[in-house]
Design a protein that fits this description.
The chain is an alpha/beta fold. Helix content is 43%, strand content 14%. The chain has helices at 2-27, 33-55, 85-93, 112-116, 129-145, 170-178, 220-238, and strands at residues 57-62, 76-79, 98-103, 122-124, 149-152, 182-187, 203-209. Helix 4 links the parallel strand 3 and strand 4. The chain is globular, with a radius of gyration of 18 Å. The termini are far apart.
């Protein structure tokens, strides 16, 4: 049954993304980048809605009170990355438009990538690291001045449930350069939507938003160590079953 439901959801996303992307491409000739963003977020809501009703995946969010207030308040969100689910979910939750930092190759994905190209986000060439970071800072500063929050995955790629990747300091460097606070976010998506897995499982995905961490006067590596410590401790609280191997035997 899980396989059938997963295939149905995959088909559902494929059938809905094509007309939605075509509509985005057409409307981008007339609408602002912010309007296009919320239009794209509409399809992500459809995908998350489909995950709820076809896959049985529900979400539970805590820590709303930690989000900055104000239309132009800046923030750099640093997330645990376990699956595609949180990339779909976060724009449906956040009150501000989000700008993902992602590799430019995603722009070439038919329909989905074409629609992404119409949004004001930060796509980088990973083969040119120094130029890429300068672009992240330049565009991040401009976007945050408009009330757009920058969202990054410090581990760089999807990490298997119960595992920890290497936390890279690009997100904290951006926060320090722009003066924005860092908001750590733990997400237990792999309980239901495992990394690179076709079959998804019903259950609850927890999203825990941590307290904002000021970036002024901090060093990137020191600040990232604090982000990493909070996220990894919170992951063990949200999904203790995934970390049972760490517990000493009695």
């Amino acid at each position: 049954m899980a396989l059938i439901r997963s295939l149905l959801h995959l088909l559902f996303m494929g059938v809905t993304v094509v007309p939605w992307a075509i509509a985005v491409l057409v409307c981008s000739l007339f609408l602002s980048s912010t309007q296009i963003y919320w239009m794209c977020a509409g399809w992500l809501r459809v995908a998350v809605w489909g995950a709820r009703w076809l896959l049985g995946i529900r979400t539970r969010v805590t820590g709303w009170e930690h989000l900055p207030t104000g239309q132009t308040s800046a923030a750099v969100l640093l997330l645990k990355h376990q699956s595609t689910f949180e990339t779909f979910l976060m724009p449906t939750l956040m009150p501000h438009p989000l700008a993902y930092v992602f590799k430019k190759e995603l722009l070439y994905v038919p329909f989905f990538g074409w629609a992404m190209a119409r949004m004001d986000m930060i796509h980088i060439d990973r083969s040119r690291r120094s130029e890429a970071f300068n672009k992240v800072v330049q565009q991040g500063r401009r976007l945050m001045a408009q009330g757009v929050w920058v969202i990054m995955f410090p581990e760089g790629t999807r990490i298997a449930r119960g595992q920890k990747g290497t936390y890279k300091s690009g997100g904290t460097r951006l926060a320090i350069e722009t003066g924005a606070p860092v908001i750590p976010v733990a997400v237990s998506s792999a309980k239901c939507w495992p990394r690179k897995a076709l079959i998804k499982h019903p259950g609850v995905v927890d999203v825990s938003i941590g307290p904002p961490i000021p970036s002024a006067g901090r060093r990137p590596d020191e600040l990232m160590a604090e982000v990493e410590a909070w996220i990894e401790a919170e992951m063990r609280r949200l999904d203790p079953e995934a970390y049972t191997a760490e517990r000493p035997s009695t």
